[in-house]
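Forum > Structural Biology > Help requests

Title: Can anyone predict the 3D structure of TLC domain containing 3B?

Hi all, first post here. I have the sequence for TLC domain containing 3B but no way to get a structure on my laptop. I'd be grateful if someone could post the structure tokens.
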Amino acid sequence: MLTPMVAGGVVFPGLFLLSKSTLQRLPQLRWEEADAVIVSARLVSSVQAIMASTAGYIVSTSCKHIIDDQHWLSSAYTQFAVPYFIYDIYAMFLCHWHKHQVKGHGGDDGAARAPGSTWAIARGYLHKEFLMVLHHAAMVLVCFPLSVVWRQGKGDFFLGCMLMAEVSTPFVCLGKILIQYKQQHTLLHKVNGALMLLSFLCCRVLLFPYLYWAYGRHAGLPLLAVPLAIPAHVNLGAALLLAPQLYWFFLICRGACRLFWPRSRPPPAFQTQD
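Reply #1:
Sure, ran it for you. Structure tokens for TLC domain containing 3B below:
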């Protein structure tokens, strides 16, 4: 177990530092540190998402029996990804810190900051990203022990499907980068927004009904009978995982409405000339 976790602890922070250094030092780029940090964090998130969804696809398609079949990649990648969630909490804080600095709330010239400013930034970060931080903490403190210990080698198919929920993450990251650099008007942003909406709906929201349907087909039960046939704590866990996905999907839908159907500005008032 230790080897995959150590590897993840090296790969994700290492990729972040490599990307940040490259963006800052390449003569063709020479990005400011804030831009390099934010884009590098998005890049690492996208790489992790591609790796997770690929591993999930391999596992889910390899397990013909959805309960008993096993694949070595399910436990290996779960252990490998644990350091990512810890790293990403810090990476998100760095992004928040640099955005705060860019807005002029901190001195870039090394001047002393007001007492308590760092704590104020940290509180602002936790307030803004509370749900995401809670999600990452739950993945490390709850989902990881459950997947390694409680499953006892069963249900690799379901774990593989859960890993494929990361399919939407690269589109989310690209969308945030385009918004940050004021590219909302471009065709790329609109196409990416449509792909983000579709992938999030299919791979995160509809994932849970699909898992219930897959178990029902395995057990010979109709979909609506599955919640009554499985333990209550499984239904509770699924509901807790689904709730933030529904909230984030609502935010994505609201953003899509603003993107594709912007509110028309009221016509200017008619002015008479004397």
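The CA atoms of residues 85 and 136 lie 5 Å apart. The radius of gyration is 22 Å.
Shout if anything looks off.
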